[in-house]
Design brief:
Helices cover 17% and strands 29% of the residues. It has 317 residues and is of the alpha+beta class. The radius of gyration is 19 Å and the shape is globular. It folds into two domains: 10-86, no CATH class; 95-316, Fumarylacetoacetase-like, C-terminal domain (Fumarylacetoacetate hydrolase, domain 2, Alpha-Beta Complex), CATH 3.90.850.
């Protein structure tokens, strides 16, 4: 796994004999976050995010201490290569997913379906729109995802995921990024053939089944860690790529989003509170299987990479 060398630390969840624990990835080592900071509440990433206003400084201070070899006695070093990393937010309160937020993907899907290509939503006065994936869909990086028995048209979608670190309600766009604790990578796996309800005409307004389409077990791999927002100079200038069995399928940049992350947070927070640990998947660019008609098969390996964050992969079974 490759990370962001500029960051003092990455926030992760790692496996122990006692269960998942929050860890700080510093260089090529992992440290237990609670033991390193001396704060028992920081034993989980959700516990850290719930106290993000104070935790952000505490984690930076702890990471700086490690760099100076000042806190070796407080927490044991664990080699990153021998530590099992789990999904950084194993149980997010809510997973919000931006729909059709890259123009090239929306246009390609429309062409595949034989319908007119959508016009710029801004020209129509539209705002960002979302669907929700169930929290139990979260999946660890590096695991085998058992989903081919469920869907014949299993598709991939790389997305930058923003992790909320402060309660946010009615947030203006200009201040929206202040509520982001950090960023991670997500794959919004989609069961294309499960998204259409059988027995209904294609023109029916009730034809879609978003639950079966998006919320099956294993459909939201995230990882490998959270890079603090303070270490991402501009989240709208990040390259992102996805490969299937080494073949590059998606290759884009977050600058191609139709609606920025700040606009998405502002829209979601209208009369609704976003909570620490909520994930916002910010959309996927062109290059999905739904556009070409070629989908994931048993044994396929999907690898995701986002600039400044890192990479991970999953195998399909």
């Amino acid at each position: 796994m490759a990370g962001n060398k500029r960051a003092g630390y990455k926030l992760a969840t790692y496996q122990t004999k006692e269960g998942p624990r929050a860890g700080l990835v510093i260089g090529e080592d992992v440290f237990d976050a609670a033991r390193l900071t001396g704060k028992p509440a920081y034993g989980s990433v959700i516990g850290i995010l719930a106290d993000w206003k104070r935790a952000e400084g505490a984690l930076k201070k702890a990471a700086a201490g490690v760099a100076k070899s000042a806190v070796k006695s407080r927490a044991k070093r664990m080699p990153l290569g021998k530590t099992k990393l789990l999904a950084p937010v194993p149980n997010p309160p809510t997973i919000f997913c931006a729909g059709a937020n890259y123009a090239d993907h929306a246009a390609a899907m429309a062409r595949k379906q034989g319908i007119p290509e959508p016009t710029d939503p801004r020209e129509q006065g539209l705002k960002p729109w979302f669907f929700i994936k169930a929290a139990h869909t979260i999946t660890d990086p590096g695991t085998t995802i058992k989903a081919k028995h469920y869907a014949d048209e299993l598709d991939w979608e790389i997305e930058l995921a923003a992790v909320i670190g402060r309660p946010a309600k009615d947030v203006p766009k200009a201040k929206a990024l202040n509520y982001v604790a950090g960023y991670t990578i997500a794959n919004d796996l989609s069961a294309r053939d499960r998204g259409r309800r059988p027995g209904l005409e294609p023109t029916s307004i009730f034809k879609m089944d978003w639950t079966k389409h998006k919320s099956f077990d294993g459909s939201c791999p995230i990882g490998p860690w959270i890079v603090p927002a303070s270490d991402i100079a501009d989240p709208q200038k990040l390259g992102l790529k996805l490969w299937v069995n080494g073949a590059l399928k998606q290759d884009s940049n977050t600058g191609q989003m139709l609606f920025t992350i700040a606009e998405q947070i502002a829209q979601l927070s209208i009369n609704m509170t976003l909570h620490p640990g909520d994930l916002i998947l910010t959309g996927t660019p062109a290059g999905t299987g739904g556009e070409s008609g070629k989908f994931l098969k048993t044994g396929d390996v999907v690898k995701l990479w986002i600039e400044g964050i890192g990479e991970f992969e999953n195998r399909i079974a």
